[in-house]
Amino acid sequence: MNNKDRVQKKDATITSDAPKRPKKEALESQSKEPSPVFRLVRPKPNTPAKPRTKPPALPAGPSSRPARPETQPASKPSLNSLQAKMLEADKALAAGRLDESIALFREAVELGPSNPEALRGLAMGLLAAERFQEAIPLYRKLIKLFPDDRTARFNLALGLAREGNFPEAEKAYWGLLERYPDSVQARANLGALYQTQGKLGEARKQWSEVTRLSPKLIKAYEALGEVLMDLEKPDEAMKAFAQAARLQPKQAGAWLNYAAAAAEAGSGGKTLAALQKAIKLAPLDAEAWSMQGDVLLELYRSKKERELLDRAVRSWKKSLEIDPSQDNLRELLKTYGHFDKAG
Fold it and tell me: Nearest 5°: phi and psi at 265?
């Protein structure tokens, strides 16, 4: 197996469900810039006792329903009834009852068409329900009214990417980064978007910047290492995977990724050391045992030390015990199996 293929692909961020590397979905929090844990962030419930004051109210605008007849006097909606409606909508959204939440937020928008929180709630509900064609125009409207609304800009980019409109998604992420260059989540998503499209140079720049902005973000080092492997720069990939392994030393997968990069770079000793750590952490990982056998075989071919070949054969046998479906190992054992002193 090619060492690049051995790198365990990690979910880095949300993008569309493109065939190369599917990613998890996320919405950006409306409160502060989060580290990209890439999960759906629910809106905070409204409290009727404390009317929302931020961001400033939208200017008066048309309702989503047809205008009322002129003969019918306009009435100002009760603040309490509007907030009660939004509270119920928030609860439904937090509980995952998306259709109910969307319906309630629509009613809230009808009660208070100039209320920005009602518009934001409706847009978020539609986005969470993957109704992108409805959510995207709402976010464009919010951005037009509030150009500095980073959540609206982020979620617009998210919706466009999930819809598969990558060029517009890139523009939306850059529009956000022009105003908020420290947005880790936006850079991570942009890096993943470039990576999905095979724009590896651009992806490398974004992931490198993410590691600078958030030096303890494991997923960034994993994604950067993956990009560098695809760029055929295993020496640099080793550094990225080494940092990921240092940040999560008890994760076998981190050491396997480092081992794959080290093997591609031709460093047999570092490869073997990393594999031994991975096997100690995950003794039933068939891939780790198989890779260890392959590395030992290469070392045997260069050093001609019989012990290395014996260990290689034992590693392959152990891998086959765990996963008997590996026909390639059976072929290797047909060739080298009789050298195993312990077999």
Answer: -80, -5
CB-facing half-sphere around the CA of 248: CA atoms within 13 A: 19
pLDDT of residue 114: 82
Q: Exposure of 304 by Cβ count < 10 A (0-12 exposed, 13-18 middle, 19+ buried)?
A: exposed
Which residues, at least 6 apart from 200, have a Cβ–Cβ distance to it below 8 Å? 194, 227, 230, 231
**Does residue 2 or residue 30 have the better pLDDT?**
2
Least confident among 5-19, 79-93, 211-225, 322-336: 5-19
Q: With DSSP H G I counted as helix, E B as strand and the rest as coil, what are the percentages for the chain, rounded to 5?
A: 65, 0, 35
> What CA–CA distance (Å, rounded) separates 299 from 309?
8
Q: At what angle do helices 184-196 and 150-163 cross, to 10 degrees?
A: 20
Helix (H, G, I), strand (E, B) or coil at 284: coil
Report domain extents, the chain: 1-57+78-232
pLDDT of residue 24: 33
- Alpha carbon separation from 163 to 17, 29, 134 (Å, rounded): 9, 21, 11
Per-residue model confidence as pLDDT tens digits over 297-307: 999 999 999 99
172: closest CA among 202, 196, 139? 139
CATH of 1-57+78-232, picked from 2.60.40.720, 1.10.468.10, 1.25.40.10, 3.40.47.10, is 1.25.40.10
pTM listed for this prediction: 0.74
The answer, yes or no, to whether the previous bond of 55 is cis (omega within 30 of 0) is: yes
Confidence at residue 255, expressed as pLDDT on a 0 to 100 scale: 98
Distance CA 41, CA 47 (A): 18
CA atoms in the 13 A half-sphere facing the CB of 184: 20
